[in-house]
């Protein structure tokens, strides 16, 4: 199977890190910021 890099489309907030996983991805805010990865403050 081939895994697409869902992070290539930059789905996360600009103050968050995108972690590509097999078939999915998740976002997490950078240290010092709070939120769900899609919204960080």
Key features?
EGF-like_Ca-bd_dom; 29% strand; 41 residues; mainly beta; repeat; two-stranded antiparallel ribbon; signal; disulfide bond
Quick recap of the structure?
With 41 residues, the protein is mainly beta.
Structure description:
- With 41 residues, this protein is mostly beta strands.
- The protein has no helices and 2 strands.
- The protein has strands at 16-21, 24-29.
- A two-stranded antiparallel sheet has the order 1-2.
- The model has no long low-confidence stretch (mean pLDDT 97).
* SSE series: EE
Query: Helix share of residues?
Result: under 10%
- The chain-level structural class is mainly beta
Largest sheet descriptor: 2 strands, antiparallel
| Tertiary shape | elongated
What is the arithmetic mean of pLDDT?
97
Unreliable residue runs: none
Strand order of the largest sheet: 1-2
Strand content: 25-35%
End-to-end gap: 37 Å
Total beta strands: 2
What is the number of helices? Answer: 0
Organism: Plectus sambesii
Protein name: EGF-like domain-containing protein
GO molecular function, one term: calcium ion binding
Pfam families: EGF_3
């Amino acid at each position: 199977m081939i895994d697409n890099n869902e992070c290539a489309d930059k789905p996360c907030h600009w103050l968050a890190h995108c972690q590509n996983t097999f078939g999915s991805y998740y976002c997490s805010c950078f240290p010092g910021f709070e939120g769900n990865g899609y919204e960080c403050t």
